[in-house]
Amino acid sequence: MDFSLPTILIALGQLLIGGLYVFAGLSHFGPVSEKIIPVLAARGIPQARLALYTASALEVLAGACLMMGVAVVPAALGLALFTVLASYVMANFWDMPAGETREALHNVCISNLAIVGGLLLAAAQAL
């Protein structure tokens, strides 16, 4: 087994980013879903509950793959696409009036773009 610094850093990065998605995806099956579903429905997502549960299951699966180093390229690219789409649907700061909510959602989008960058790096190193 390779215990070089690059290998350890890659494994740790995949573990942390994948864990983020596993944790978030699993939380969508609990009480928090009742807050998310009406937002999805209001944004025009058909069958919001089914859409949330399906997306969350895929989020957990892809996150687990990333954590375990299995199918890293499709997992990372799938999570990158998921993150961009989720940001567009759920963190639409551009539709908000100026203020704290708009600023908070803007920061969420910026953070999500950084996470997408990490996912793209994970995919690239796995090629």
What can you tell me about this protein's structure?
With 127 residues, this protein is mainly alpha-helical. The protein has one domain (5-126). 79% of the residues lie in helices and 0% in strands. The protein has helices spanning 5-27, 33-42, 48-68, 72-90, 100-126. The longest helix is centred in the C-terminal third of the chain and has 27 residues, at 100-126.
Key attributes of the depicted protein:
about 80% helix, about 130 residues, mainly alpha
What overall geometry do the principal axes of the alpha carbons give?
Answer: globular
Q: How many beta strands in the DSSP annotation?
A: 0
Write down the Rg: 16 Å
Classification by helices and strands: mainly alpha
The low-pLDDT segments are: none
Largest sheet: none
Structurally, the number of domains stands at 1
Mean pLDDT: 95
Instruction: Count the DSSP helices.
Output: 5
Along the chain, the helix and strand elements come as HHHHH
Q: What is the subunit organization of this protein? A: single chain
Helicity, in percent? over 70%
Q: Hey, roughly how much beta strand do the residues contain?
A: under 5%
Distance between the termini: 19 Å
